[in-house]
Amino acid sequence: MLVFAKIISVQQKIESLKSGTSIGFVPTMGALHEGHLSLVEKAKNENDIVVVSIFVNPTQFDNADDLKNYPKTIDKDLSLLKSTNCDIVFTPTPEEIYANNIQSQSFDFDGLEFQMEGKFREGHFNGVGTIVERLFEIVKPNKAYFGEKDFQQIQIIRKMVEKRNLPVKIIACPIHREKDGLAMSSRNIRLTKEQRVSAPFIYKTLKQAKAEFGTKNALEVVKWVENEFKNHPLFNLEYFEIADEYTLLPVETKNSTKKYRAFIAVFAGKIRLIDNISL
Ligand code: PAF
To answer: What is the value of pTM for the model shown?
Structure first.
């Protein structure tokens, strides 16, 4: 496994590969868990080589504390990646990526950016678009792999690829969960013991909401979920929405030809957790 911190070095390595070598790319912000490793294995099964990037992208954080406290575990990440089929790791600094202008470009994602996460994390998706496009430019992958925990992010990246005609296929991979149902996330290691023990409540509520959606309309299910969280001693609900998978617009009336998903964001103290379920 080769590790490069400089754009020029990773590009030279990629350019030296035999022509026709297919590249699978897994962009990450580090603090890797089994979910990330499963993306690496899937990428290796479908490509000749796998490139993983580890970069905590400052422009996608709307909250300075969240950026400061985002877990950084580079040594552990590299040793985990060594145990997989990863070929190349790219670990740039913010200066390497942004020079001295740490700013996002402004994107038009046809309104996807204004739903859910977009309502609560100002500028987040401009930051994601900026870094993902930049990494695609550097790595030039054939396929890029993303986890469905950040489902809205995947739809936004697909939109960017379509609008900017980028030559990369986006592969969405199912959410990896702990045995008790909690969606794997780099942020989970920041939970207190008590918060961690109670955190499966989030997925349990999503599963119950899915069952409720069989007989109730979306508004009633939203009310039901809000009520479940109302008096929770550890978790504050930021939003729960049932939305169309493609437009991400909230459901008004159910239509059997459409695919829906329920999306949730919850605060455990200062730690923000998100999850979603296909309905
Ligand atoms: O999902 C993430 O970890 C990040 O948003 C990504 C795609 C690596 C961009 O920084």
So the answer is: 0.96
